[in-house]
Each structure stands twice: as structure tokens, then as C-alpha cells.
């Protein structure tokens, strides 16, 4: 996809972290933080009216589709909640960095790429 045809945003609009020595490690937002930012994400989607939303990871998926959708179970699928949005579910790319075994990381990387290739074919139609 051409980058100028994409809009990138976050479901939660602030960065929460924990210090580990001199490093800041991202901390997953809780349900309340996701809920407090939902109006903002909703306003962005209402304004943009995208053909497809790509939900990268559990926070994005739960903010768009609720808690019944699971990233690992539903990844690679384009879901149509209440007929409003088409949402492609996949992992967050940072998850690939946390996989220690090289062959498992490569397998997951190829699956992630396969997921993302669905964007082009979906948007073309």
C-alpha cells in the first residue's frame, strides 16, 4: 500500500511505560484507558470513513471489536462488526520482536506478511 493512502493512529492516545534501568518499556493500557480514548478513535473513524481498518494487536482489536474477538484465534480474518467497519485482525509487529526462537519468529513474520497482503486485495475491490 502506498503510505499516502493510509492513516495510522492508536486506540489509546497516551504512552504508558515502566522503567527498567534506563529503558522505558511499554505497558499495556487497561480497559479503562481504552474506554476513555474510544470516543477519539470513533471520531477519527467517523471523519475518515476508511474502507478497511487494520487492528494491530489486542488493544486495537478490543477497542474496535470488543473482548470476544481474540487476536491469535481470529488473525488474518476481516471481520464486519455491526456492518459499520471492515476490520482486519492481526498481531502487533512488536510481538515478532519478543519471539526468541528464530524459526518460530520467521514463521510468525511470514504469517504477519500474509495477513497484511490482504489489505491490498481488499482495498482494490
Automatic annotation (TrEMBL):
Would you tell me the protein name for this molecule?
Uracil-DNA glycosylase-like domain-containing protein
Could you tell me which Gene3D superfamilies the record lists for this protein?
Answer: Uracil-DNA glycosylase-like domain (3.40.470.10)
Please provide the record's keywords in A-Z order.
4Fe-4S, DNA damage, DNA repair, Hydrolase, Iron, Iron-sulfur, Metal-binding
Residues covered by the Uracil-DNA glycosylase-like domain: 2-117
Q: Name one Pfam family in it.
A: UDG
Q: Which domain of life is it from?
A: Bacteria
Matching entries from InterPro entries are given as: UDG_Type-4/5 (IPR051536), Uracil-DNA_glycosylase-like (IPR005122), Uracil-DNA_glycosylase-like_sf (IPR036895)
- Organism, by scientific name, is Rhizobium dioscoreae
Q: Does the entry feature the keyword Acetylation, yes or no?
A: no
Amino acid at each position: 500500500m502506498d503510505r499516502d493512502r493510509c492513516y495510522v493512529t492508536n486506540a489509546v492516545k497516551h504512552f504508558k511505560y515502566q522503567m527498567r534501568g534506563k529503558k522505558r518499556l511499554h505497558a499495556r493500557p487497561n480497559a479503562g484507558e481504552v474506554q476513555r480514548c474510544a470516543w477519539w478513535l470513533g471520531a477519527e473513524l467517523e471523519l475518515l470513513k476508511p474502507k478497511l481498518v487494520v487492528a494491530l494487536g489486542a488493544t486495537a482489536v478490543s477497542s474496535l471489536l470488543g473482548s470476544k474477538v481474540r487476536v491469535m484465534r481470529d488473525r488474518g480474518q476481516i471481520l464486519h462488526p455491526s456492518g459499520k467497519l471492515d476490520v482486519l485482525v492481526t498481531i502487533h509487529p512488536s510481538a515478532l520482536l519478543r519471539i526468541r526462537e528464530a524459526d518460530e519468529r520467521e514463521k510468525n513474520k511470514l504469517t504477519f506478511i500474509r495477513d497484511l497482503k490482504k489489505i491490498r486485495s481488499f482495498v482494490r475491490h
